[in-house]
Input
Amino acid sequence: MLRRLIPLLIVLACAPAALAQQRDPAPGRRIAERDCASCHAVKPGDVGPSPVDAAAPFQLVARLPSSTELALRVFLRTSHAGMPNLQFTEQEIDDLVAYIVSLSLPQK
Ligand code: HEC
Output
């Protein structure tokens, strides 16, 4: 069982950037502009300052090596100091993560 899972885990670990490239970041951007922009700088290329100093611009969040898709997913499901307890559907989390990850790709 475990032996069959390992290749899958490797693929999952390497896939985020590739997957995000195929996903349309537009819906996530709309959610970010609606729910996150009051504190974070959310637009592509916007490196801040954010409306709330402690809230990192998404462009910078996207470039952190620690910002894997998985980490962002976990983050968006848990509440954090200074952040409202937003509840998202799976689809909204997919969209938001796709958008944030898309910011780490070279901007056109
Ligand atoms: C009310 C203000 C506020 C709103 C709205 C908000 N955030 Fe935040 N966010 C913060 C603050 C403040 C921090 C820093 C918290 C900390 O370091 O503990 C933060 C941290 C984060 C981080 C971690 C950044 C890092 O440095 O690793 C992510 C990712 C994030 N927010 C995503 C979002 C997303 C996505 C939304 C919209 C769905 C959102 N936030 C909405 C205030 C906000």
Q: What stands out?
A: Residues 32, 35-36, 38-40, 52, 54-56, 61, 72, 75-76, 80-84, 86, 96 surround heme C (CB under 6 Å).
